[in-house]
Design brief:
The chain is mostly helical. The chain is built from 17 helices and no strands.
């Protein structure tokens, strides 16, 4: 199989895993009625996947470096298919939650391995940047298709179909992957996999995500949330201390402070904070405030995802020419501007007046994703691309989790109980909800601007890595110190 079909297979697998996080939301009302689930149980149908996915990403990425990216990718895709089948057949909420946990392990292995495979398959810096642009469309495709496909499946069949559809799709990708993905040698190491570091980091991220997700429901000052946040701080601090003395650490501590890598992760986390947080509440606006159906609301968000699909490959091609720094700044600026323009949202505003603004949010995201990914991977030697990819994707996951929680808290502060339950809003309740959304959008835009300033300080505007790096065996670097090499 040539490189292009391999790239498309990897991108399709990423799109499938991204869509699974949003497609379920459309099915929750019917699922709740069928399984007699409480509001808290329905929330955990979403949260179980997110927490497992985010907390295992780094360990999954490093494991891919050690045992082989192809093996890890196929294992992740297999677990995702198994978890989806389990969910589709689940007779109760507890059984469904077990399936969601298995589902979440799949993308934690698949996602960093997919990006590491792209880097290995395209060693030339220019081709690699273009390929990462295509790879980034997987996120846009997943975002665009998730709510829409979910609405179609629920209306045509029932809630189980949103899980069942993953099984044949993942199986087809597995067949193509087994036949076509290259067998890349794993990174040799005389040292054991850092199990202690993996446990500390996984536990720390899981505790952090729990505190972020449940903070609005349980109260940010509640004993459970305070304890969870404290546990996260202790475990993450312990992880950093543990890694200092390891001969082959799970994550090289110096990498986390490298200027370009730090900039890429700040940008990635903030873009997903605004993008996913905004997407969740834009969809709620169309449903709760404007009274549209789930299917209609999904179609209203299509311009955003399609814009990412169209713009991300273009940004990948432009990265070697214009530099990752310039494109990251341009993407952040467009995303911030588009977010502020969404302040025009009002209960009676027609969709014809806003669709292009929804698309503009996607344009900014599509511009920013490929150069920030190139920048993150350029900070390390090719042998450690799984590590870099995993840390970068983990920053995105934590960013989107924080975005949904923080923006939701801001809206709830204005709308009160009307913000919960997914009920239709009219009159004063709708106006209060929209006022809260406006404040949340200002916060998201301000963060995008602040991170753009930080990126400008940390990354040279024209940086992007010289094409000649492809012949040296190192990943092209935007700026900063030499790439981190594997430990001897």
């Amino acid at each position: 199989m040539t490189r292009r079909p391999v790239l498309l297979t990897i991108t399709a697998a990423q799109a499938l895993s991204v869509a699974s996080a949003s497609v379920v939301a459309v099915a929750l009302p019917q699922l709740g009625r069928d399984l007699d689930a409480s509001a808290s149980e329905l929330q955990w149908v979403v949260d179980a996947f997110v927490i497992v996915f985010a907390s295992l990403l780094v360990a999954g990425g490093v494991l891919g470096d050690r045992v082989g990216r192809r093996t890890t990718f196929l294992a992740g895709l297999s677990l995702f298919a198994l978890g989806s089948l389990w969910c589709a057949l689940a007779p109760s909420v507890p059984a469904l939650l077990v399936g969601r946990v298995v589902q979440g392990v799949g993308p934690a292995l698949l996602l960093p391995a997919s990006l590491a495979l792209v880097t290995a398959i395209f060693p030339d810096a220019v081709e690699r940047a273009r390929a990462i642009g295509v790879w980034a469309t997987g996120s846009g495709l997943g975002l665009a298709s998730g709510p829409t496909v979910g609405g179609i499946l629920v209306e045509a069949f029932d809630w189980r179909a949103v899980f069942a559809i993953n099984v044949p799709l993942a199986a087809a990708l597995l067949v193509v992957g087994v036949r076509g993905l290259p067998r890349l040698p794993p990174t040799p190491s005389p040292h054991r996999f850092d199990v202690g570091g993996a446990l500390l980091l996984t536990g720390g991220i899981a505790a952090l995500c729990f505190a972020i997700i449940e903070g609005r429901t349980l109260g940010w000052g509640s004993p459970g949330i305070v304890a969870s946040a404290a546990l996260a701080a202790v475990l993450l601090a312990g992880f950093l201390r543990w890694e200092q003395g390891r001969p082959e650490p799970l994550v090289v501590p110096a990498l986390l402070l490298q200027r370009t890598f730090l900039a890429a992760n700040l940008a990635g986390g903030t873009v997903f904070f605004a993008l996913i947080g905004g997407t969740v509440y834009f969809t709620a606006f169309f449903q709760q405030v404007q009274g549209r159906s789930a299917l209609e609301s999904g179609f209203c968000m299509l311009p955003l995802g399609l814009a990412v699909v169209l713009v991300a490959p273009l940004a990948g091609r432009l990265t070697p020419r214009l530099g990752a720094g310039r494109l990251m700044l341009a993407g952040l600026a467009v995303a911030a501007t588009a977010t502020l323009l969404m302040l025009r949202l009002e209960p009676g505003l027609g969709y014809g007046a806003i669709w292009w603004n929804v698309a503009l949010v996607g344009v900014g995201t599509g511009l920013a994703l490929p150069p920030m990914t190139v920048t993150a991977l350029s900070a390390v030697d090719p042998a450690r691309t799984g590590m870099a990819s995993a840390v970068h994707n983990a920053s995105r996951q934590v960013g989107q989790t924080l975005g949904v929680a923080v923006l939701g808290t801001i809206i709830a502060a204005h709308a009160g109980a009307a913000a919960d339950g997914g009920r239709a809003l009219r009159g004063v309740a709708a106006e209060d909800w929209v006022d809260g959304l406006h404040v949340a959008l200002v916060v998201a835009a301000a963060l995008l601007v602040a991170v753009a300033v930080a990126v400008a300080a940390l990354v040279r505007p024209g940086s992007g890595g010289p094409p000649a790096a492809a012949t040296t065996g190192t990943v092209a670097r935007p700026a900063g110190p030499e790439p981190l090499r594997p430990a001897a």
